[in-house]
Design a protein that fits this description.
Length: about 290
């Protein structure tokens, strides 16, 4: 084999992925879901199961009053059908504050109720208020979560090193949002890039800036080099990539997962590694 510099590609050999993560299950998610569907993008919606259907208004000093009511269970089941549901704690408590048994209850009972609603297992979580510590991470792992989003902007397109402390690229109100979108569409093709944007849909009413998210989706959607996926799909894919088994001479790669994987082995060569199969790798040219 010639010189190799294997790197991950996303499904169908794409070099970029775009994902959204929106919290609290608010009624403004209806409009956000419509926009996602219009532009063909996927979002992970992080819900607090005990407050689904709760009605409330909020007014920050100097800001307009906004509806922060939550969608109810029946609506949540339908509304998020083509997207991912993630956990966000039963009552949205700060999980670093109460004792361990209560923090575990917030995590596990929320997961149980959302899984019942969804009819599927959950793999993503978003830390309430963005706060966490090592113990909370351990509790999430014990509860069966595989990924959890923070609120710390990286302003980068790097893949998460620790998916249980998954830092997003930025919030949708970040002043660099459109600059980052532009950079994202021009990253080098040999390095995988993930653009990850988070927020709360009620903020669009509060700031009267729905045009901001629409403009972003217009800009990044419909691009052949971008995979539009929910957080958990990206996590599944990254974990399938990490499980690839190489022969000592690099000529064979086994993909033991149930997920097809694409990699680049040189500037010119990309390889498709079907799920559950052994693939003979083509020679690379120095
Ligand atoms: Zn929240």
């Amino acid at each position: 084999m010639g010189k190799r510099f294997d790197s991950l590609l996303f499904p169908e050999g794409k070099c970029r992925a775009f994902t959204l993560s929106y919290d609290d299950g608010v009624v403004q998610d209806r409009r956000l879901v419509r926009l996602c569907e219009q532009y063909g993008v996927k979002c992970t919606f992080n819900l607090n199961s005990a407050v689904l259907g709760y009605k409330a208004q909020a007014k920050a000093p100097g800001k307009r009053e906004i509806d922060i009511s939550k969608v109810d269970r029946d609506e949540a089941r339908e509304l998020y059908r083509s997207h991912e549901i993630g956990g966000h704690g039963l009552y949205h408590s700060d999980l670093t504050a109460p004792g361990t048994p209560y923090a575990m209850y917030e995590i596990l009972e929320d997961k149980r109720q959302l899984e019942e609603l969804r009819g599927d297992t959950l793999r993503m979580f978003a830390y309430p208020f963005g706060v966490y510590n090592e113990q909370v991470k351990e509790l999430l792992k014990t509860a069966g979560y595989r990924g959890a989003r923070t609120v710390k902007s990286t302003h980068s397109f790097a893949l998460p090193e620790d998916p249980l402390a998954w830092d997003p690229t930025c919030h949708h109100n970040d002043e660099k949002l459109f600059e980052l979108a532009e950079q994202f569409l021009h990253t080098p093709a040999f390095r995988p890039a993930l653009f990850y944007v988070w927020g709360h849909a009620y903020e669009f009413d509060g700031e009267d800036n729905w045009q901001r998210i629409e403009e972003l989706l217009q800009k990044v959607s419909g691009n052949d080099t971008v995979w539009y996926a929910a957080n958990g799909e990206i996590l599944d894919y990254l974990q399938a990539y990490q499980r690839l088994e190489y022969s000592a001479d690099g000529t064979m790669i086994r993909n033991p997962s149930s997920c097809d994987v694409w990699i680049r082995t040189s500037f010119e060569n990309t390889e498709y590694l079907p799920a559950g199969a052994l693939t003979k790798i083509r020679d690379t040219v120095l």
